[in-house]
Amino acid sequence: MLINKITLCAERIALYSANQRNVDASSLEFVKIKYGLQILLVELTKIIPYGIIFALLGMFPEYLFALIVLAPIRVTGGGYHAKTYGACYIVTFLIFFVGIYLPSFFTIGFELKVALFIVGFLLTLFLAPVPHPNMPIRNEDMRKKRRIRSVVLFILWGIPAIFLNHHFSDIVMFMLFIQAILLPLGLAANKIHAKKVK
Predict the structure, then answer these.
(1) Model pLDDT for residues 126-173, shown as the tens digit of each residue
(2) HSE of 99 in the Cβ direction (CA atoms, 13 Å)?
(3) Three-state SS string across the chain, please?
(4) Which pLDDT score, from 0 to 100, does residue 105 have?
(5) 8 A C-beta contact, residue 80 and residue 189
(6) Whole-number average pLDDT of the chain
(7) Which of 58, 137, 146, 169 is most exposed by smallest CB count within 10 Å?
(8) pLDDT value, residue 25
(9) CA 81, CA 132: separation in Å to the nearest integer?
(10) C-alpha dihedral over 13, 19, 25, 27, to 10 degrees?
């Protein structure tokens, strides 16, 4: 299974790194290194194939741009996370496909951009961050910092996208709005997960 191979690869790289830096393999620092490598490797198994698919569709620049918009706000804001790698792979691809492909069919008018921005901004302001159940936010200070980062990123991408009349500004609006919609979906999924755990 791919995830097992990724976990093993991350552990080997983390052990090598720990040995080079004289870090105890049972320490919290080692666990953080290993977990960070796992996330990086899992994301690369999605990013690279998606890039190939969108390149074949003639939409690689749009994909790269959507990735640059979505990745930072997704990391800070969180949202819905699929339970399995396969589901995650499909859901993530659909997010990119919708966010990139819809703007190629029609241009978003100013009024719709403003509406998408307001709804997305309010969802981000009041709901972000929505952590994954396996990565809870440990304290209120961290939660506040991630909320502020999410809101700032939303504003920095969203406001220019409202006023620009360009295909890429439409992609920004779609990606930001999709990310905002993933917040309440993530909260709902977390509540369902918490009920099952009890």
Answers:
(1) 999 998 876 778 889 999 999 999 999 999 999 999 998 888 999 999
(2) 29
(3) CHHHHHHHHHHHHHHHHHHHCCCCCCCHHHHHHHHHHHHHHHHHHHHHHHHHHHHHCCCHHHHHHHHHHHHHHHHHHECCCCCCHHHHHHHHHHHHHHHHHHHHHCCCCHHHHHHHHHHHHHHHHHHCCECCCCCCCCCHHHHHHHHHHHHHHHHHHHHHHHHCCCHHHHHHHHHHHHHHHHHHHHHHHHHHHHHHHC
(4) 83
(5) yes
(6) 89
(7) 58
(8) 66
(9) 7
(10) -110
- The identity of residue 147, as a single letter, is R
- CA separation for the pair 118, 159 (Å, rounded): 10
Distance, CA of 187 to CA of 198 (rounded, Å) = 17
Averaged over 24-36, what is the pLDDT?
A: 74
Please count the CA atoms within 13 angstroms of the CA of 88 that sit on its side-chain side.
16
pLDDT at 12 > cutoff 90 = no
Which contacts (CB < 8 Å, 24+ apart) does range 133-136 have? 133/190, 133/193, 133/194
Residue 70 has pLDDT above 90, yes or no: yes
Half-sphere exposure of 135 (CA within 13 A, CB side): 18
